[in-house]
Specification:
This protein is 41% helix and 20% strand. Strand 3 and strand 4 form a beta hairpin. The two termini are 44 Å apart.
Length: 481
């Protein structure tokens, strides 16, 4: 505990609050999520885009404008904004949707409809650091610029469900969905919400009391408050709160009903949540969040949302007033929170250490050592192509291989310990005399048990899983099973 405390103190001394270094195995875990998300999105024809990390500040101030035309000061305060050397007002990106929308607008004349985009990377907000919430955080997001059809929303939710299903957490999550309608229905709902909460405003947090006083769409943000006291007030007085469905016109209601019917046909369970609104003001129509169940360890109450999205047709008009009737929808996944639900050591790529060792029969001539080195390098190369991370322990190649682990010379034991620090679970010992018989020795690093395996059979494996199954078969043969 003392060492851990001092390590955290050193990190706090040299690292800004809300920022951190990601090292292996967590950095490996992050890269694995990135690859898997992009692969799944590509199967839906979402094409990768790398967005700038710095944009004009106006891009983000526009996307926080409410139906009355004013920007949300709470959102603007979270921006890392500054003036560059050219005198331009710029900001570090707090989310990816606005940048993707800007890119679509700039290139829309050459793009087909629908246009599908996916992105992954760090976002920055000057927020209060918590578990699963950092000032620099990672998101994977997808955006669809289409025709505003309910099938587009259905496709996006289905992709989100597939992405999370790839991590086998369907039993741990819940899709919550709502319909916040058009400008008129939001205005009516806001008025009714203010009337319902006004008698109870003394129970609300300071920020929510300010939003209540501002009224308009700003009041809707009370429903999105992460303050636990606000959530208690909303729960206690939920029977007094207005209901969205009674305020929507027929077109808005039909779009949402068709979306819910589609979810039922696809077998995606959902909960209708009348209090659900999105934190950014450009959303309209269907909005949704995927929450981790309360009994799942690793996330606090306010960090349970790991994916959120919805329809934001109005954002494109905010960025470029000449655009109208352009459908747009998307979602973003909180990668840092997804990482908290996994054991990084279990998702890291398997590591093998390849040892090139002289045998008792080998005199250690230069030619023999060169031949052994070449053989060991070739084995390591094939394992890497198969998908393993490989550590080559060839710098001390003249060490003698001793079959009995208890009799190993100290320098060899040090090499084994070094390979374990690299995360190696398997050691593969290459010796020239055994290679002549197409044999190598496999050591299971945790048990220090050695097994003889046919090298050609191992290297015929198609992938990591196939390789490990072949080792298991060899272990069974060695044990006479």
């Amino acid at each position: 505990p003392t060492e851990c405390t001092s390590a955290r103190a050193r990190e706090a001394r040299f690292t800004l609050p809300g920022f951190r270094d990601l090292e292996s195995p967590k950095s490996d875990q992050l890269e694995g999520i990135r690859r898997r998300c992009f692969d799944l999105a590509a199967s839906y024809c979402y094409r990768q885009i790398d967005l700038p990390i710095v944009e004009y500040s106006t891009l983000y101030s526009k996307n926080s404008v409410d139906d009355g035309g004013s920007s949300d000061p709470a959102f603007l305060q979270e921006l890392f904004s500054f003036q560059d050397r050219g005198g331009r007002a710029v900001a570090l990106r707090p989310e990816g949707t606005a940048g993707a929308a800007r890119n679509f607008i700039a290139n829309r004349k050459s793009l087909s409809i629908p246009t599908r985009r996916s992105y992954f990377g760090p976002m920055l907000r000057y927020d209060r650091p918590q578990i699963g919430r950092y000032r620099q955080f990672n998101q994977f997001g997808v955006e669809l610029f289409g025709r505003g059809h309910h099938y587009e929303d259905l496709e996006l939710i289905n992709l989100a469900w597939d992405v999370l299903g790839a991590y086998d957490i369907h039993s741990k999550i819940q899709l919550r969905i709502n319909n916040i309608g058009d400008t008129n229905s939001r205005r009516l709902f806001s008025e009714l919400l203010v009337s319902a909460l006004e008698p109870h405003k003394h129970e609300l947090s300071k920020k929510s009391r300010l939003r209540l006083a501002e009224g308009g769409k700003r009041a809707l943000r009370i429903l999105d408050s992460k303050d636990e006291s606000d959530q208690e007030v909303l729960h206690k007085h939920r029977s007094e709160l207005p209901q969205w469905d009674s305020l929507h016109n027929s077109a808005v209601g039909k779009h949402f009903d068709q979306l819910l019917e589609g979810l039922q046909r696809l077998g995606i369970p959902y909960v209708r949540d009348q209090t659900l609104v999105r934190g950014l003001d450009y959303y309209s129509g269907p909005v949704y969040e995927i929450w981790v169940n309360p009994n799942v360890i690793g996330l606090g109450q306010s960090q349970r949302c790991i994916l959120a999205g919805g329809r934001y047709d109005s954002l494109l008009t905010l960025v470029d007033p000449t655009i109208s009737n352009q459908g747009a929808a998307g979602w973003a996944l909180g990668v840092d929170r997804l990482m908290l639900l996994q054991d990084p050591t279990k998702v890291a790529k398997p590591v093998i250490t390849v040892f090139g060792l002289r045998s008792n029969k080998m005199e250690g001539t230069t030619n023999e050592l060169t031949e052994l080195e070449q053989a060991a390098w070739e084995v390591a190369r094939k394992l890497r192509r198969m998908g393993f991370d490989v550590v080559s322990a060839l710098h001390d190649i003249q060490m003698e291989f001793v079959p009995n682990a208890s009799d190993e010379i100290p320098s060899f034991q040090r090499q084994l310990k070094r390979s374990e620090r690299h995360g190696a679970k398997i050691g593969l010992f290459v010796t020239l005399d055994k290679l002549q018989d197409d044999m190598v020795t496999i050591r299971m690093m945790d048990s220090r048990e050695d097994y003889e395996c046919r090298l050609s059979a191992l290297l015929e494996a198609n992938n990591v899983d196939d390789f490990q199954q072949r080792i298991s078969h060899s272990v069974s043969v060695n044990h006479g099973i």
